[in-house]
Amino acid sequence: MCLSVFDIPADFIQKNIESLRGMLTRNTLFGAGAGFQKSIGHEVLERKEFSENKFLKTLHGKAIKQIGSSGSGNHFVEFGIVEIKRSTQKFNIEPGNYLALLSHSGSRGLGAGVANYYTRLAKELCKLPDVARHLAYLDLNSEAGIEYWMAMNLSGDYASACHHLIHQKIKRSLGAEMISRVENHHNFAWKEIHDGKEVIVHRKGATPAGKGMLGIIPGSMTAPGFIVEGKGETDSINSAAHGAGRRMSRTAAKNSFTKKMMEEILKDVGVTLIGGDIDEAPMAYKDIHEVMQFQNDLVDILGIFKPKVVRMDG
Asked: Containing domain of residue 225, as a range?
């Protein structure tokens, strides 16, 4: 997740819908396996891991082509209005309403390749009964475990670079200054100290919410997202929800809704959608306001992002 706040007042959006729509179309790239014909380039592509790890070397070409892109599924890049409710030492921005850009995507083919390769390797090296084969693991003291840890962290840095490049291109198109940025990983693993021990915390569908940590919890293409500050609740392992969460599967959504139903809801809330499919219909997601209410002991809300021009795959 990555959110950039620009030095542009919120009323800019309504007056420039078509211009903003064009920026998202020109400066983003969606689609499974999609990549650029001409590489954008970034320092993460020069990392030594690509030359020292034989498997990562095979993914380098794909990483070069796909950097600065968004993928498919529930990934998005969207303009919206962010209402800053209060500032903190780490989030030093005056309360008020601003134009903002929010993006959600991962590490593209690089991350998928890393996950698939090391999952297979774990199953080969860690022989478990068939019913437990998906619990196979790599010891972090082993050569394979050390390799995977380095590859996973490289993939995380690559995902961050993808967001930064998209935001930089759109910033240039806007001719604006970025006055604040908030970003966080999810579906990732961290080394942390809990109960006096170093452990690995894997936040699948969860946002880091350690004391004072900033993060973003998105809603859906029509529901708001939230800029949050973690409270460091140990009972939740310093974590909060990643988003609203689905209340029905993609297949169920496709069988339950029509494109016309989705278009009517988008019109009612004043959201312009580029791409997107019925499986990502806002009706398929839980109520983000309820989700936030349930975790008010985990995070404080610093700002609310309301989507207005949304770009997705399709």
From this structure: 2-311
Give Cα 214 to chain centroid, integer Å: 14
The CATH number linked to 297 is: 3.90.1860.10
- 2, 183 Cβ separation under 8 angstroms: yes
Token pair in block for residue 115: 């996950």
CA distance linking residue 216 with residue 299, whole number of Å: 11
The domain total for the chain is 1
Set 164, 186, 242, 289: catalytic member? 242
Q: What is the mean pLDDT of each run of 10 residues along the chain (314 residues)?
A: 96 96 96 91 96 97 97 95 93 95 97 97 97 96 97 98 98 96 97 96 97 96 97 97 95 95 95 95 96 97 98 93
Report how far residue 41's alpha carbon sits from residue 179's, in angstroms, rounded to the nearest whole number: 24
Residue 89: per-residue pLDDT: 85
Which single residue is written with the structure tokens 């995380």?
156
DSSP-assigned letter for residue 71: B
Task: Give catalytic status of residue 242 as yes or no.
Answer: yes
